[in-house]
Each structure stands twice: as structure tokens, then as C-alpha cells.
């Protein structure tokens, strides 16, 4: 029976995986919220958030090239801090992925789809998640091939908004001076930048899922850093341009109050049907769910192989060598969440869970540098993980109390998983010592 994943993913598919995961549905709604926090200069907090995201991404790039394993964050933390900490972080990452897929499935069945067709929410959720699971089981190369098409549509829609906004400015209907308006009644320039950057940071979340594909990437030591930073910089450029045209074309107060800020740019330009953006948004949601589902299944597989989850989750489909049990298990949990929860309740805890993971990963890269490395892995300057750690601690202070209350429940479950792993490890060591003592003890019958 095969016990390792097949290395079939080239650099360009990994690049599109990261880009598709970062350019998620959040950008379609967050720009208005950022404008409310920062003012017309929306591009400034977006650029700040890109820098913050790249800090933690540097730690991931070093660890993924040094330890290209499907367990990702859980595997790194296990090596640095032990199996109990690894089980806790793996649970946080897995919970975030499962919750995210459930929220995206619910989002796919909401107002965007209603613009095109009316179908019962439960039916849409079941069909949507079933289709994603089948594509995931068929193979990662096929899944990433679909991601290339979806990402192209997604990026094309965002570039269309940038082009329309540019056209509005060229014809003289915009107000470029708003791009220098940084600050609100509640915050000065620095406070507004930081408040907006916290929201904008959410738009860059998704890059961390790609480490779970490192075991399936051809030559990860060369491919992974190129794909990761290339995709983050591409997404950052798109976001900054979107923020610039939105801030210059749409008055700040209208942008801040809109639930569809990019549609405000389309309306200002004229000539493009709004249903087109419903389709693009659906593609973005579906693509995000597919990529997050791949991450969750590979993480569950990697943790099971490392002994952090039940071993059955590590079973592979014989010919395709995809983790079919892990795919079905994570999909079933996402389906349960999607059928019983609301989008807001499912989505608001993601950031807290991921910040816990990011904090541990930045600590892990510093600790694992004590081990000798003869692999020639990618290495970031030592200051980068320290700054990444500081950025996570800062973002913790910006999380709302209600989110902490919900998140602590999941974190408590993660601690239970970590504690169970600690007990199991202690029993294993104890039984090993007992067997060793028994092997070394004299045999009474031989002495007689």
C-alpha cells in the first residue's frame, strides 16, 4: 500500500493555488469596511497588511522547504514543541479549515446565487460540497487545474473593476485627492492605518494552507518560496489597485456604507450588468471552498500519519493516492456546520484560530533553527519571524470580545486534543520503559 503522496504539482499550479486562496470572496466586501476605518486612502492599510502577511509567510516558506510534509503547521510545531502542542495547533488549523468550508458553502447558497436562480439552501449546500469532495478525491492535480480556471475568472473580474475605475478617472468623474485622505473622526492617520490594516489582513489569509501541499510539490525547496511570495505580491498589487480606484471613484461615505463596494465602482462606470459580478463572486466562493477543502483533508491526513488523529484518516485511494477518508470526514463536518450555522457565526472565529496558529509557527521556526540543516532549505533573516510574532500579538489586541468568547470554546477543544496526545505519549513512554525493564530482568528459571 502506498504511504506517501505523489509529487505532481509544478510551481505554476502551486502559484495559482496560493493566489486563488488569497484572492477570496472577502475582497468583495472588505474594501467598504476598510474605508470606514481608514478614510479614502484605502490603499494604505492594504499595503500595510501585505507587509504583515509577508512576515509570517517568510516563516512558512522556511519551514515548508525544510520539512515538506502534508501536516504543515501541526508538523512544524510538533517538531519544535512536542506532539501535544502539535495536536493543539493542528486542531486549530483543521477547525479553521472545516469552519471556513462550511461558511463558504453557506455563502454560495445565499444572495449571490439568488441573483441567478432560486434553490433551497440545504439542497445547494449538499450538492456543492459533494461536488467539491468528488473533485478533491479525484486528485490534487485535477483540483488545481480547476483552480487555475477559477482563479483566472476571479482575477479577471477584479481587473475589470480596476479598468472601469481607471476609465472613470480618465473621463474626469473621480476625485483622486481622496487617495491622500487618511484618518477618521475616531482615528488619526496612524490609528486609521492600523485599524484598517487589521481588516485588510483578513484578505491575505489563505497563504498558510499551501504548506499542506508541500509533499506533493516537485522540488519544494525551489518552487515553494517562488510560488508563495509571487502569489502574495500579485494579490497585494491587485488589492492596492482596487483600493486606489474604489477610494478615488466612490465617495468615502458611500463606500463605507455599501455591502457591495466593488459594485459601486461598476455603477459609477456604467455599462456592465450587475449579474456578471454575481457569477464572479460565486466563482470566488467556490474556488475558496475547494482550496480550503484540499488543505483541510491534507492536514487531517498528515496529522493522522503523525499519530495526532485516528489512523484511518491516513488511508489513501490505491490508484490515485488521495486521502479519501480524510476528504469525506472533513466534508461531512463542513456539511453539518453549513446546514446548522449562519455565515457570520461560522466566519468570525477564523481569524482568532489562525492567529494562534501563526504565533506558534513563528515560534517554531526560531526553535527549529537550533537543529542542524543540511538540506539547503530557504532561509529568511532572523528578524522576520520575530516581527511576524510581534504582528500576531498586535492583531490579538484588535479582536472583539465576542469573537474571543466563541473562539475560546474551540481553543478549549484543541487543548483537550493536545492533552489527550500528551497522556498518550506518556503511556507510550511508560510501556516502553516497562518492556525494556522486563527484557533486562533476570529469568528466575534460568537462575535456578
TrEMBL record:
Q: Quote any Pfam family the record assigns.
A: AA_permease_2
Subcellular location, in the record's words? Answer: Cell membrane
Q: State the signal peptide span.
A: none
Q: Which UniProt keywords apply?
A: Cell membrane, Membrane, Transmembrane, Transmembrane helix
Region (Disordered), start-end ranges: 428-448
Where is it mainly found?
membrane
Q: Does the keyword Amino-acid biosynthesis apply?
A: no
**Membrane topology (UniProt):** Multi-pass membrane protein
Q: Where are the transmembrane segments?
A: 12-31, 43-63, 84-105, 117-137, 144-169, 189-207, 228-256, 276-301, 322-344, 350-368, 380-397, 403-423
Protein name according to UniProt? APC family permease
